[in-house]
Amino acid sequence: MAQVTALVTTWLLASGQLCHAQQSVVKPLPEIESDALCPSSSAHPQQPLGPEISIAGVSFSGALQMAVADQDQIADSVKHEAHGTSLDGVTNEALERVRAGWQNRGYFKVQVTGEASTLSSSPGSHRIALFVHVDEGEQYKLSRITFRNNKAISNAKVLRNLFPIRDGDIFSRERVAKGLENLRKAYLDFGYINFTSVPDTTFDDQNGLISLDIDVDEGKQFYVTSVNVLGLNEPARQEILKDFPVGQIYNARIFELSLKKHSTLLQFSSDDPRHVKRLLDERAGTVAITLDAHPCPVD
Predict the structure, then answer these.
(1) pLDDT tens for residues 280-294?
(2) What CATH architecture does domain 223-292 belong to?
């Protein structure tokens, strides 16, 4: 699985408003990733892992208004996606997925608590049941999304269309997060590598509405000054460099498409820090790119 962009962060609820750190409204849900292809030489030796913990059952309690069918979908998602070797870790991941499930259905201020009970245990596996108490709170709809300080892309309608949620729809943290990620990618295609956005959130509890006013910090537009390819012979290097023009505005979409075109030689994505290095000159607004095609690049 491609590594999620480091700029995707979390929305924090405080004093009736949401504060934003860097780029997205929500923290990505925990995911189980495969071992790194090139483990760091400085990494500590792996500790023995405990038995694999799986969730066999999920039950909810509380004064719930959500449809039972939706509750069942959330429970199924938790059972299939929350697993690991730490009981606390699995429980916390499961509760976060429950919280996300309710928030994706408009219950943005939902509070969840829960505990796990062991059903069976063996040296290789540990099955648990999860009991979750849910305080739903009010269900919200999206009132509107507006933007400020957007200069490079001044057409607010274009920016609004990047969000896969309409005014009046049930509020969904997942769909808003997707919109913010689309917004980031749109600016990356115009060379704004340091782009950030800060949603200022307003609640209308009387009418059950949430409004977002997104403060855009575009940063500087970057141009590519050099591209270096390591770990390949000279003919392969020259062939690849034809698709990485120097002197032009950095375009993340074209960069990724170029990597895919040469995927037999460059078997990594543009956000893989082990193989892609970007050296930014903030003052000059330039970026020098190094692509390392070695199986295990040396830091």
Answers:
(1) 999 999 999 999 998
(2) Roll (3.10)
